[in-house]
Amino acid sequence: MLRAARIRTEIPGPRSRALTERRRRAVSAGLGTALPIWVAEAHGALVTDVDGNTFIDFGGGIGVLNAGHTHPKVVEAVREQVGRLSHACYYVSQYEPYLELAEKLNELVPGDFEKRSIFVNSGAEAVENAIKISRSYTRRPAILAFENAFHGRTMLGMSLTGKADPYRRGFGPFVPEVYRVPAPYAYRMPEGESWFDAFRRSLVSVDVESVAAVIVEPVLGEGGFIPFPPEDLRRLREWCTENGAVMVVDEVQTGFGRTGKMFAIEHAGVEPDIVTTAKSLGGGMPIAGVTGRAEIMDSVHVGGLGTTYGGNPAACAAALAVIRAFEEENLLERSVRVGERVMGELREIQRRHPDFVGDVRGLGAMAAMELVTDARSKTPDPARTKGVVEHALREGLMLLTAGAYGNVIRTLMPLVISDAELEEGLAILSRAVDAVAA
Q1: What confidence score (pLDDT) does residue 2 get?
Q2: I want to staple 42 with a disulfide (CB 3.0 to 4.6 A). Which of 47, 154, 217, 254 is the partner?
Q3: pLDDT value at position 1?
Q4: DSSP string, 191-236
């Protein structure tokens, strides 16, 4: 049987090693890279490096490629748009793709109320603008952010992010009036503890009447793929309403089908005030959105929002093509099926290695396993986690880690992955865990 993953050289290969030598003389050492390969091309769920090695991609550009690498609809839409208009700056003069995408997102984002949208360049920039808008609307300064959260690498993004190393170390002082509150982390929470009680206790040092917004990921992404229980999201919604705070839901990584619904917050039946989107919205093109209640989004003075490249015509065309792909190719249904198969395999791996695979969790195709030294102590095992990633790469599978301790292996494979590619990738993952556990 012809296999999708084909390894022709050692990993990294000679051309990848040569490019890495060039990189040392040209690129800042502060820029980290998870895998030592250099990519030449990619299609669907397969990535080929400069040495001719083909890998099955379980990382998806950190969740950017739910619709797959170089999706034909996206490629054609970008090609056609760039041939007519590549840039105009919506802050200067307007163009229809921006408007059409805003209309689409206003329709798709949960909430039975009138909405408005704006577009920027990245998830961090979307978060920045969501907080700006929340402060403008409430005339309050304080923001609540969760432990293990990740909201970007800008100064405000870092201030909201819970993990110090590598994201915050050495970059302070940070933006004031950001308060960290506990997140539900079932695997590591004391038995019998109520998350909502812990949340309320943490507010003893916060002037609740000064809180402009609470920002939450429905599934903590970089923090370790930790799902926020639906009932707790509903309690949080109630708390925001009772206290006049804007509920900002960060769907940068969870959005666009990753969890089996277009937006992860839909699993809880919650209507957020503002939703931020990015990553798979653009299918590989840089674009991010902020979508929210009309009265909140319109509270900002004219000229208070804007960016040179945000909502670039080509990026808007790509995003519209991604949405068409979801509508025409049943990608939400595919996400559910992929998620069921991945979770089933991860649980089987855990059954074989209960002292190594401490927890298996996720939502839809956003699944992960947390690796520990032993089941009793639950001590994080980042060294062997790295070993699993390296072993899998040598066999042709691209994996990414996550978590506060770097001991979580997450799955973000494109949803267009074929059944054969998915099975091959899961088999490689299974063998990698077996080898490292032994």
Answers
A1: 54
A2: 47
A3: 46
A4: TT--HHHHHHHHGGGS-GGGEEEEEE-SEETTTTSEEPPHHHHHHH
401, 371 contact by CB (below 8 A): no
Is 1 inside any structural domain? no
Coil, strand or helix: which one is 47? strand
Task: Work out whether strand 226-227 and strand 219-220 pair parallel, antiparallel, or are unpaired.
Answer: antiparallel
Q: Residue 326 has which token pair? A: 């979801």
Give the helix, strand, coil percentages of the chain, each rounded to 5: 40, 20, 40
How is residue 91 written in tokens?
Answer: 């802050």
Closest CA to 299 of 317, 273, 327: 273
- Strand 288-293, strand 400-402: pairing: unpaired
Q: What is the pLDDT of residue 191?
A: 81
Answer yes or no: are the C-beta atoms of 411 and 58 closer than 8 Å: yes
CA angle 63, 68, 73 (to 5 degrees): 125
Determine the residue type at 149.
A
Which residue among 283, 298, 329 closes a domain? 329
425 neighbors 394 (Cβ within 8 angstroms)? no
Please state the φ and ψ torsions of residue 437, each to the nearest 5 degrees: -65, -35
Cα radius of gyration rounded to whole Å, the chain: 21
How far lies 229's CA from each of 112, 349, 377, in Å?
22, 24, 24
User: pTM above 0.90?
Assistant: yes
Alpha-carbon gap, residue 397 to 53, rounded angstroms: 11
pLDDT at 3: 75
* Domain limits for position 414: 14-63+331-437
3 state SS of 54? strand
Which CATH number goes with the domain that contains 115? 3.40.640.10
Low-confidence ranges of the chain (pLDDT < 70): 1-2
Q: Kindly report, residue by residue over 65-121, the tens digit of the pLDDT.
A: 999 999 999 999 999 999 999 999 999 999 999 999 999 999 999 999 999 999 999
* pLDDT of res. 189: 87
Q: For the chain, what is the domain count?
A: 2
Spatial contact of 215 and 252, defined as CB atoms under 8 Å apart: no
